[in-house]
Amino acid sequence: MNFLRKYLDKQKPKFEKGGKLQKLHSVFTGFESFLFVPNRTTSSGCNIRDAIDLKRTMIIVVLALVPALLFGIFNVGFQHFKAIGTLADTGYIEMFFYGLWRVLPMIVVSYVVGLAIEFAAAQIRGHEINEGFLVSGLLIPMVMPVNAPLWMVGVSTAFAVIIGKEIFGGTGMNIWNPALLARAFFFFSYPSMISGDKVWIAGMPDGFSQATPLAEASQGIPATYDMASMFWGLIPGSIGETSTFCILLGAILLIATGIGSWKIMLSTFVGGYCMALLLAYTLPETNPYASITPISHLIMGGFAFGAVFMATDPVTSAQTERGKWIYGFILGVMAILIRTLNPGYPEGMMLAILLMNTFAPLIDWFVVQGNIKRRLKRAKQFQI
Amino acid sequence: MSKVIKLKKGLDIKLKGEAENVVRNVEKCNLYALKPTDFRLLTPRLAVKVGDQVKAGDVLFINKYRPEVKFTAPVSGTIEAVNRGERRKLLEVVIKADDQIQYKDFGSADVNQLSRKEIIEKLLDSGVWPMIKQRPYDIIANPEDMPKAIFVSGFDSAPLAPDFDVTLADEFSALQAGIDCLKKLCEKNVNLNLRAGTPSTSIFTKLKNVEINYFSGPHPAGNAGIQIHHLNPINKGDIVWVVNAMDLAIIGRIFTSGKFDARKTIAVAGSEVEKPAYFKTIMGAQIGCIVKGNLKNQVHQRIISGNVLTGYKVSEDNFLGYYNNMVTVIPEGDNYEFLGWATPGFNKFSISKTFPSFLCPNKKYALDANYHGEERAFVVTGQYEKVLPMDILPVYLLKAVLAEDLDKMEQLGMYEIAPEDMALCEFVCTSKTPVQEIVEQGIELMIRELN
Q: Do residue A47 and residue B396 have CB atoms under 8 angstroms apart?
């Protein structure tokens, strides 16, 4: 790779202060450090550093998303051919490529729009480009319905990155998970494109409609899908969220590498389960959700996806270890609560996460106060 | 009653080039130096000029704002140079050593016969007082204070750190005199902390007149700050003194021999050292003389005075730091690595499990000084907590420092923290945050605003 290095070394002065392309400095260093880990060595503090950096961290999260993404792409094709009635004549490869044809443009739009804004913002501030959007940019299409028009995906992404992230100071400073903010923006701006029976399956023939399992449950329609298909994921829904199995594969990678907080994942599932259990006994018969078992709640809709990939975002979740337990538990409770008791919209995970993102600093505040009190108490104890 | 305190949090970084248990003599060194920069926030006033003759124990410079605290020459000889940096900041007072060291006589005495006041005077005059540091702030102790306890850590848990049982093997009487001296300084509470499982043959377990406790667990279990936190935590207004075991022997010698005898045995270790071993030398010796003929390479290497976590980079014509008991040599690592963040990285060490290093916990690594990434916004949470065995929320403490919020710093434990205690937080940080620098800032701020 010497020729590449030599080439970069030759180009470098142009991007430095006083160079012709000084305005693109952040972009240049962004690409340079993508290709080569810089040669900078420590000058203060520890002489040695852990091999991990933010790029490694983010790439692990992207890897964890891959099973759900690949399955999601396949499922888009599967649902399409099922809807048009030619499922039996279509090969798996064909289904996958149909899905890819639909999903890839969304991914490209999300990355191009988001990264362009990130690059520009970094350049304006004179910062380095942070890697956070590598994950957000993939999450955004995965939480969208496949029929979302590309321009809407683009506008939502732009909103999430500018309003949700950059005005707070960029990566690490945002209050809400950017990908969910994109979805929330989409949801409230173009509600007809993200709810109902017509948006979840690509290229549906006229007159055909298929609700997601959640929508069926919320309307009290007898379920089309059994628990097994909800677990494996051959159901309509947002692109990445349908297969609980693939999401769990991602969860295993995140927990094994220590990148995702197992405390948040576990407490979210426990919170959701407890709430669902409580509701199973207390909901009136008239509520369409009364017949849904607690376990089904956890594998339906976006619950698992949110718990594994969204709730664990280290920037927007609780930052103290004790706070993570509390945050996850309330999040699980809220998700099921919104889902079952709010008639307006069948899914509660998105709003529950955004709500808990808002309250995460408060949870941390209580944990920090607890620490301060404990320390003061200790002071008294030792003075006697 | 001695306690055994088990610590779980922390990290042992296993590095190649551990010092072999043999003690060698360093060839005769010509130059020695005392560096005012080794002492946090010291404003020195020079007491010698170039060409002066000094004996070991003669004053080189003093603390301008507390003139009784003196810094004395480790060897006898001629003042070779007074090196200054930017804005004439005093960096080094260099001594060209005599062939035979002439010692200034401070008079040997039985510690137990002296009063506390006489002892303090002796320590101040001979120049060993700066070896007594205080917490909070990790600065030289104030001779007018009465500490609530004194802590000596009998082991160093840092990577490649010297084994004090080797370096102090022949120093029992000096150590005991040192302990007796501390006992006079603080009647109630002199603590010596050893690694759990230290055999009874160890020189330390034989020491008398001291409360011995045991610590088990990974680094930083050997840091005095951690030990204080678990045995006798510092609250607002408390003062605890800390003495390094190696320095304790030098303090003891003031009483046993009446001389400022600054000889010490240090470890020379690290993957770039030809034959890692222990070496007998004298405080402030020139680095080049310590590592002479023992380096694998002459370029792309980093020589560190101290350990890899808290030591600082030195060149061969620089000098061993006042508080340092080892010299570490590692590769500099100033090369680019193609797609380094994406490769499997079999030779890279990480506390996270994103590299295969976690599969072979006993493998030793030749780590270099490369950052392995760039500084980023703080993103990943829960990392610092894993390597700080204290009831302190490290991230919130650092945030309080950055916000210059003195109340919060106080409440969240700034009095208990020295930069070295949080060195591992800096090591593990994904975002490459300069943790120790921030802690230093916090300490400076507190001293400026509260005293």
A: no
